[in-house]
Fold this protein.
Amino acid sequence: MQTQTHPLIAPTLGTARNLTSFHYGPGGGQKIYIQSSLHADELPGMLVSWALRRKLAALEGAGKVRGEVVIVPVANPIGLNQHFLGHLTGRFETNSAQNFNRNFYELSALIQPGIEARLTDNLDANRTAIRAAMREALDAQEPVTELESQRLALQKLSYDADVVLDLHCDWEAAMHLYTNPDLWPEVEPLACYLDAKASLLALNSVGNPFDEIHSFCWSDLRGRYGDRFPIPNGSVSVTIELRGQREVSYEYAERDAQAIIEYLTSRGVIDGTAAPLPALEFAATPLAGAEPIVAPISGVLVYRCEVGTWVDVGHEIADIVDPLTDRVVTLKSTVAGVLYARHLTRFATAGLEFARIAGAKAFRSGSLLSN
């Protein structure tokens, strides 16, 4: 195992932060990149990364790691330092109000001017050429803020990975994941091992989140040049939502880390025989089919069903109780699917999106992610 340190731009005099990456395996095979807690207040992934490191150290010691596995347990040291009256606010940078998981460099746009001339009729040569163009484009960037330097450092670590796993969680949620529909055949085994209750597919959800800036480039290039040049899925990138913010336990971390190990074993990154593939309980659905449940009034939020459960059309999801007027508004699902996430708060403001249901039919467009 090798440890690398990646300095960030110092935001003020007398301060400095850095990213730390841990590299397992001899290299030369597949490259796997796994990071956690890009939203710094989403801590289950940090514990999963810790458990993964222990497993990988043992596997490496036994000579069973065939490729390179890179772990970045703390992907957002900036956000970890943002405390307001004792509360960790790790989703948005307080200086700019930017979401830490948005606005990564769009690789497709950066390499577009010169990539066509590098493409040939050889698929492997095209993978190498595209990754070389990505590296050159990232090397040419000149970040001016600490946040920009953090984004760039993470992309330089991950742009050439065959698999990119970004470990997150929601407020309260069942295990679920997000990925590109082009990648689903390669991601489905991971969803099975993790026992994902929802698998949400989108080519471009808008906003350049971390997982999408890896896979979208390859899909975009296939759309532009695929009729003339063979272009692979050069990055199987997935956002894994490890249930809710409060679901931090050794038991969950061990289970989730082992699921990832089984997936890597099934891909041949780790020597051995993967565990039998469990069945996926619920089919993958388009992210554009996810129904947001929005509060029409303010009041006390009382949930009527649990995350991870199937709901039919008309199922009662929650009540909003106004204790001043005795008014009770019951919100119902208009789609059938899994209630995969809900808000941690129990007080609704008018217009609050407090739950999401994974419906099978796409009906939304534009920006598909929460803020």
Notes: Residues 290 and 332 are 14 Å apart (CA to CA).
